[in-house]
Amino acid sequence: MRGHAMRRVLFAVLVTAIGLVLLLSFKPHDMAGVAQPPAAVAPAQVSPSPSPRGSTKSAGARTFDGDAVDTRWGPVQVRIVVSGSKITDIQVLQAPQENRRDIEINNRALPILQQEALSAQSAQIDSVSGATYTSDGYAGSLQSAIDRAGL
């Protein structure tokens, strides 16, 4: 009798642990109530007359749009602002924002990615923990913008 009760307890613990792992790995995509994307993923202002290569000039600064890189959760695209041969700003044109979790990840990860890229002046940046897909898409789009800028 004792062995049977012990097996039942172990089985219940195992089923509970598996259920918890499955629950924590679930990422919902259809959440109602997500109104506005945060400032970190709000679309950048588009210049009125971009050139065919995705580049514009204004007051000595030039902008270059990177490719939209598809990720598991949606496309990521950035625009760089270049003065001389230096990247002075990076704007996010697209990032996953289907639900509250996407927005939380982007609010945390995108400023870190921007800071690292501006500091490194390249797309050779570390992924942000918990935002691997966004980090990879960001770096890919950034590299294509840097290539367009000839940096």
From TrEMBL:
This is FMN-binding protein. Transmembrane segments: none annotated. Residues 42-68 are annotated as: Disordered. Residues 71-149 form the FMN-binding domain. It comes from Nonomuraea helvata. Coiled coil: none annotated.
